[in-house]
Amino acid sequence: MSLKETLERIRTAPTPPNEETAKIQIITPILQDLGWNPLGGADVLFEHKVATPQGEGKVDIALRGKKYIVAHIEAKSPGVDLRKHVKQALGYAFEEGAQISCLTTGLKWQLYLPLEPGPPNQRLFSTLRLQDGPVDQLAEDLETFLGRENLDEGRSASQARKVLKARHEADHLQEKLPEIWRRMVKNPPDELIRLITEQAYAELGLRPDPVHVLALLRDEHIPAIARPEPSSGTLPKPNLASGTKIYPGNKPVSGTKPVAFELWGDRIEVNTWKEVLVGVATKLYRRHGYEFNRILELKGTTRHYASRRQEDIPVRSEEIASSGIYIDVNFSAEGSKKRAIVLLNFFGYSADDLTIETR
Q1: Which of 10, 101, 224, 247 could form a disulfide with 93 if both were Cys (CB 3.0 to 4.6 A apart)?
Q2: How does pLDDT run across 75-96, given as a tens digit for each residue?
Q3: Is 305:326 a contact under the CB 8 Å cutoff?
Q4: What does the buried/exposed string (b/e) look like for 242-255 if buried means 16 or more CB atoms within 10 Å of the residue's CB?
Q5: Residue 85 CB: number of other CB atoms within 10 A?
Q6: How far apart are CA 110 and CA 125, in angstroms?
């Protein structure tokens, strides 16, 4: 009977009631199909004694290769929690230098590399469930890792190490990819915003602003954004409180307290000079959308103008809307006004577009 036929028979047979029945009905026939001689041969050793620092122990089945023991098989009753027996099984296999250690109920086979470093769960390279999955694949895996010729020639351990390495890499990705994604959502790189923007335009004929993309990435409501256009005429000035002065953007304003600024016909009330600078930057962001990322190109001699990393601006910084871009706001009154003018000029606007009300 071939290994695949044996596996098919096992699938249709009743579950063995105990460990000894599992050895007779499942484990022994499988070993025989894998090239071992469990019926009186010298290569399959039952109740094999193992010397350990704690004394003598016994492993249910040891497989002897041409020169030495190449694998251990520890059998348990179907339904037993194999995790409780891993440490002992690996200890026995390690003491004898076995390439492969197997814990099995007959229906479930857990395969370990006992000589690899790390805790037991990091040495588990494969779990085979005989009642699940394609029979062809199960037969191939059993042959690869427990076949007599493969164990004798060292191919089993070599392939098991490759599988274990791939599993560790997958576990590492499983752990780290969510962290990377969370950082990208918080401060999306330009490439990600551009990719989503271009895909939306290709499929919908609509080009979202960065604020739309950021809302999507952060699982927020996607807002409707009105884009102001330059005023075609002069709007009536608001009624100003006594003592209020209006400064054009090209006039010094030091030593004053802002109450509002006007840009492109919109009047925005403020309380601090930081709010003036942030307000101007926000209106630039609303108007220019993705192009606002160009602000990251501005470089000072000692300080960043803007950055996607808040730690690049260690003293005082402020995020512009939900752009993921932080700007330096650690300025005096005149410094805040000058920085607002720098931003306007950088995007092609004049200082004359900005007026500031103070009291």
Answers
A1: 101
A2: 998 888 898 899 989 999 999 9
A3: no
A4: eeeeebebeeebee
A5: 15
A6: 8
